[in-house]
Every structure is written in C-alpha cells, then in structure tokens.
Amino acid sequence: MIEAKTGFIDHSQILHVLENSSSPDRGEVAEILSHALEMKGISAGETERLLMVEDNELIDEICRTANRIKNEIYGRRLVLFAPLYVSNLCKNDCLYCAFRTTNTSIARRTLSLDEIRKETENLVSQGHKRLLLVSGEGLGESALNYFIKAIETIYDVKIGNGEIRRININIASLSVDGFRQLKAAKIGTYQLFQETYHYNMYKKMHRSGPKANYVNHLTAIDRAMEAGIDDVGVGVLFGLADYRFEIMALLQHVRHLEERFGVGPHTISIPRIEPAEGSDVSLSPPHAVNDRDFRKIIAILRVSVPYTGMILSTRETAKMRRAAFFLGISQISAGSRTNPGGYSEDDSGAQFSLGDHRSLDEVIADIAGHGYIPSFCTGCYRLGRTGVDFMDLAKPGLIQLYCLPNALTTFKEYLEDYATAETKVAGEAVIEEQLANIPSDEVRKKTVGSLREIESGKRDLYL
Ligand code: SAM
Ligand code: SF4
Q1: Which residue minimizes the CA distance to atom 14 of ligand 1?
Q2: Nearest protein Cα to ligand 2, atom 2
Q3: Cβ neighbours of residue 338 under 8 Å, at least 6 residues apart?
Q4: Does some domain include residue 201?
Q5: Residue 411 is part of which domain span?
Q6: pLDDT tens-digit series, residues 98-141
Q7: Are residues 76 and 225 in the same domain?
Q8: Residue 136 Cα, ligand 2 centroid: separation in angstroms?
Q9: Structural domain tally of the chain?
Q10: Domain co-membership, 100 together with 237
Q11: What share of residues in the chain are helix, strand, coil (percent, to 5)?
Q12: Are residues 311 and 401 in the same domain?
C-alpha cells in the first residue's frame, strides 16, 4: 500500500502531473500571476503549472511577481539569526551529511553547558538576538533533558544590553510528550526538514537509524503541533529528488497542516546540498538544482504561500543570497559556523561548507547598503502572536504596521551596541528612509519616540 508507506503525500498524483504536463504558454502564466497578485496564494494546480515553465523570460515574469508580493507583504525587512550547533554525534546515516554515523573523518563532540554558554556569549557579543539550536541525533535517552538545559543556559546569558530573545530548534523528531516538554522550555519555531518527500529517494538517502522511517519523520510536525507548538518550520534539501516533485509534495504537506490544525507552517527552509566531508552524495547530488531553477523555486513558493516566512542560510553565496532577498526570502542566517564550538574555537567537525563566510557586521553593512532592514525582532513570539494569531496579522499592510517598527527599533539597538562606524552610517540612512513606509502616522510617531529612547539607553521596545 503506497499510502501506508508515504503518509499524506500523494506520490501517484504528483508523478502523474510530472509525466503528463506540458509547459504553459504566456497567456496561462499571465493569468496565474494576476491571480497571485491578489496575495491570497494560488491553487495547487496553478503552482503545478508554474513549475512546468522552462522559458527564461517567463521565469523572469514569475520572479518579478514574487518580488512585488514580497515587497507588498514584507517590505524590505530581513530577519537575522545564527545557528548554534551543540552536538555532531549522530546515529543516522543520511548520505549527504558529514555528521552521519558511518563518517569517520570528523571529530565528534557534544558541547557541555559551559561551552554552550561560551558560544552564546560570543554570539550575543556580535549582536545576535535570535538563535537556531541545531543538533545531530546521537544523544540517546538524555537528549531532551540536555536540550532543555541548553535552552535555559542560552536564555540565561546577559552581556551588557545583549541577550538571546528567541531560540528556534532544529533537532530530531520527538514524541508528542517530548514536544510538550520542549514547548514548556519556551522555544520559538520547531523546524524539521523532510529532506526529500520522494519515498524511494528518501529510503536511498537514509539507510539506517530512526530517521530512516519516512512516515515517522513526515509526521513529526503533526506531533509538534499536537503538543501545542504552533510555530513550525518545514523544508526540503534541494538536490536529492526532482525539485518540481519536492515543491508539489511540500505544498501537500502545507495543506495537510492547514486542514488538520487550521494553520500551515510558520517557515519554509530551502537548503541546497553543499559539499560535506565524507559524503560523495553531497559532491554530486542526484538532482542538483542550478541557480536559475533555485530562483524559480523561491519565486514559486513566494507566490504560492505568500504569508509563510522563507529561510535561507549561509550555505548560499552572498551573490545568490542577494538574488534570493529580491524574490521573497524573509529570514537569513549570518556569521554562521556549522560545527559545535565553532564560535569559540576552530572550524573542524563542520556539517557542510559554507558559501558566505562574512561576519554579522559585514552581512548587515551589505544588506543595509542594498536598502534592506536587518531585523532582530522577537515581538510576535513574546506577545503570543504565534500560529493562527500570527496568520491573522499576516495581511498586506498589517505586517508592515507591526513588523517594520519592530525591525527598525531592533536594528537601532544593533547600531547603538555593536555596529562598526561604517555600518552605523549605512544603517541610520536605511532607518531614516524606511520610517516613511510605516503605514500609520500614529505608529510612525511612536517609533520615532522609541528610536530616541534607544539612543538614550532604553532597550527591548516592541509593538
Ligand atoms: N539532525 C536533525 C535532522 O537531520 O533533522 C537536525 C539537524 S541537521 C544537522 C539540519 C539539516 O542540515 C538537515 O535537515 C539537512 O537538511 C541539512 N544538511 C545536512 N547535510 C547537508 C549538506 N551537505 N548541505 C546542506 N545542508 C545539509
Ligand atoms: Fe544526523 Fe541530521 Fe546529519 Fe542526518 S542530517 S546525519 S540526522 S545530523
């Protein structure tokens, strides 16, 4: 029974579309894009048609539409975070990952709580406010307890005005009860990537360990939501199966969550496979995604699910990251290390190689120089605007009303406390320019007031 093996992902429907669809013509694409511009998302059938587009000019059209939607809904904000890798021990054998159990070429390590504190201190001292805690699946019974203690340790770090205000989590799937305990530890988003939704490819890539169970992995997000975690993040590791299959299946996953829980994922991550030590698959992925198709993927996701945040990591180069911001990315990591201890020491034992090696300040200077506003905002999560409550806010104009002021004030904090002189000049100019885009005189006035208060030493002001 294919359904029993593949859960709610309807493989035969997707394969049927892939085998039987021709490219849409200009008129059909224009019609779908004009529907997309209503900013309520498009149907699964319409997304399927866009995925079949191969003509470069029509891909550019999709990209321009994605950019209009992105600007209308998110403005020029980019939320910044850093990953914190706590352990590279793993009992799974994911062929693309350096942490896989059979790879003997990296040094294995799990950080002590003191080491986690030290890593956090380094990140806080750079100006980070949002972390993504990442781990391999090698800690056995003690794992959950360890993660909860790690979270407490991270939240406990205070240096001057600096602190971590939101911890998102990317760790192996848990039981409903395990997720309840994780929620009680005050996590932000729980993220888990399906890697590939294609069952046969999944089985080929995940040879042993708990993650080899496709349905158990697929239903992890359901368990997290059952446990009350209502900000969840899904993702695909691009390069494993045909990207068109992955997007159709990913959207089936989104619809499944919407039907079952009344709200879809908070974020979608879109990593592409990067070279990883001890992994042949990472050097020549079975379905490598080129830059053109990667842009198409981001644009199609933006027009299909306009209110779901999209995350891009430092796996990508600075050039590709800039192209991706234009198309609809709303969150990026910066100044990242992918090895446990990497912010305090050397970079041996990394998970994969990075495409962007710049420091947080260099990334910020660059994005501010391109007219984007780096945001460290954690307002929604701390005011309980998560899940359905966040989606109620997610209407054109409304996000700008709350998120833009919060982006400006958190960016101002960064400029006051951490920025180099050069970044400060570029940053102040962007703040000045963006104040005009706050769509309410009253909120603009309030924001100007908050910016002045921050100059005189106040911190953590948000709407
Ligand atoms: N161990 C957990 C898991 O696998 O779900 C969470 C942490 S794992 C280190 C985080 C993610 O790294 C994986 O979900 C996978 O998508 C990504 N990853 C692994 N190898 C990669 C590679 N060679 N290039 C890019 N991303 C990779
Ligand atoms: Fe382990 Fe995650 Fe890497 Fe797989 S992707 S080997 S589960 S760390």
Answers
A1: 193
A2: 136
A3: 83, 85, 134, 350, 351, 352, 354
A4: yes
A5: 397-455
A6: 999 999 999 999 999 999 999 999 999 999 999 999 999 999 99
A7: yes
A8: 5
A9: 2
A10: yes
A11: 50, 10, 40
A12: no
